[in-house]
Structure formats: structure tokens, C-alpha cells
Amino acid sequence: MIVRSTNSIDIHYEISGSGPCVTLAHSLATDLTLWDELAAVLSPRFTVLCYDLRGHGRTSTPAGPYDFPMLVGDLVGLLDSLGIERTHFVGLSMGGMLGQHFALAASRRLDRLAIVSSTSRIPPEAGALWDKRIALAQTQGMAAHVESTLARWFTPAYRATHPEVMARIGALIAATPVAGFAGWGAAICTLDVTARLGAVGAPTLVMVGAEDPGTPPAASQAIATAIPGARLEIIPAASHQLEIEQAETFNHLLLDFLGG
Fold first, then answer.
1. Which of 5, 157, 159, 256 sits between 20 and 30 A of 102, alpha carbons compared?
2. CB 123: neighbour CB atoms within 10 A?
């Protein structure tokens, strides 16, 4: 499906199931198909809204840089166009960053918030790393990021025993528009909301893989500490894409949290 948002971009989305709405926001360099398995689990009990974030999948890829007010505007515009007044929100990595901004900017639209494999602050010194990642994508294409990204996203044991998953996720990374990667990279570098998270009133679940090198458990601990009443779950034997690597545990915790 395609809908024009209030931010004048075409947003590709899919809706399944029935019941209270759950919106799923994927990680950088993937698309809404990252959530296929979870959507199938949730749809018997919830209306599941998955969408390709700006610069990803079949959603428009305008030139960047992007910023979080713009990206929250995409989400709110999509919800408005679909007549969805309130939603649970599950965000992975950059999707979790978006979720924090959504909770702060549009609290009346949010029921429950799940932040997965994310952080609330990117230190200034990380800007140089993101500059290098963006430059690599611009000069060599996103295929140059596949192996290093998979190494950060999955534990060595899982990678070795699931070549079909590595092929599927690697294809998503390679297919990501360079402009979308760069636009989101610019937004990510501005992330610094830890001190504001005390204003989040929605019940919040924070989940992270115990072996995640990119957004380690300490980053999730900082989010959970800052949000009143937030619950932290550290998942053993999982790295960044824990919703794939430890799907059974992840799905159980999320369903319990959402009341499913």
C-alpha cells in the first residue's frame, strides 16, 4: 500500500490483524519485511502496522540530512492518514530512537512503548565514525557494509548456523538507498534525549541483547533508568537483531508487555 504523508513523501506500509494497533519501526539498512515473523505472531491479537521508514524500502528517499522532528512527522502523518488515534510502538535500533522522540513529541498518540537494541544518546566523538560509514556507502555502495554490519548484528554462533538468514538480511542491507542511509546517519548523530526521558509517561519495555556491541546493555540501562517505571530485559546469547536471534524469548516478552 502507498499513502502520501503530511511530509509529502510516499510511505509504503502494510497492515494485518485486528485489535489494538501496534506500530513496528525497523532498524537502519533494512525494511518492513524485518518484522514479517513478528507481525504473524501479533496479528491474531493486534492490528499490526509496519512501514518502511523514510529512505528505506519502497518509501520515498529524498535527499538528507534528516532530523527527528521530520521523522516523527512521517509517523504522525501516516497514523493520521489511516485514522489511527493511538498505537503501541515497537522500535528497533534507529526505530527505537524514533520511538523515544515520538513518546516525547506526541504522547497522546502512544499507549505502550518498546525500545529494542537502541540508545538515547550518540556521543559527539561518534560523528567521525558515522562520517566514515556514510562516505563508504557513497563511494562503494551499501554492499560494502554487508559483512561488517552482519558481524555487529548477530553473534558468531548464530551467523555460522543460519546462512539463509545472513543472506536475507545481507540483501536488505545491500538494497538500502545510499541517500536514506546517509540521511538517517545524520539524524542519528544528533540523538541526545537521555535527560528528557523523565517526561515519558507511557509504560515502557527496554530490551537488548547481552552481546550487542553497537548499542550495548549499558545504553539500554540508561534508557530504562531515565524513563519512570521502565522495565529492562537483557537477552542472553543475542546481539543487535535479537528479535531474530532469540525470537521465542523476544516474542514472549513483547506479548506479555503488550497484554497479548
1. 256
2. 10
